[in-house]
Design brief:
Elements lengths: L2 E5 L2 E3 L5 E8 L8 E6 L6 E6 L7 E2 L7 E6 L4 E6 L8 E9 L2 E4 L3 E5 L2
Parallel strand pairs: 2-11
Antiparallel strand pairs: 1-3, 3-8, 4-5, 4-9, 5-6, 7-8, 9-10, 9-11
Length: 116
């Protein structure tokens, strides 16, 4: 059974940094791309970043490019999202996402609040 668990969210001041983690289980982790999405209050969920299973190129939304970096440790079955220069508009619930065959899997999300 696929299981995705995010952690690392919290309250941070504008300009600060946070590192999110997503621990995965239930599938061959290194074979699959992993993505991050976020959802701000009253808004639709939006794509943030994607990292291939092995090799390949990471992709980012324009709104986070140059500030966020996603990486993964296949031995630890964990994907990370390093968020720097955070802005109030980065506030939201951040989700880890896996597309496995025809199925979509989401973690429970972790709250990120950027506020002074």
């Amino acid at each position: 059974q696929v299981h995705l668990v995010e952690s690392g969210g919290g309250l941070v001041q504008p300009g600060g940094s946070l590192r999110l983690s997503c621990a995965a289980s239930g599938f061959t982790f290194s074979n699959y791309a992993m993505s991050w999405y976020r959802q701000a209050p009253g808004k639709e969920r939006e794509f943030v970043a994607r990292i291939p299973g092995t090799g390949g190129t990471t992709t980012y939304s324009d709104s986070v490019k140059g500030r966020f970096t996603t990486s993964r440790d296949n031995a630890e079955r964990t994907v990370y999202l390093q968020m720097n220069s955070l802005k109030p508009e980065d506030t939201g619930v951040y989700y880890c996402y896996l597309r496995w065959g025809l199925l979509d899997y989401w973690g429970q999300g972790t709250q990120v609040t950027v506020s002074s």
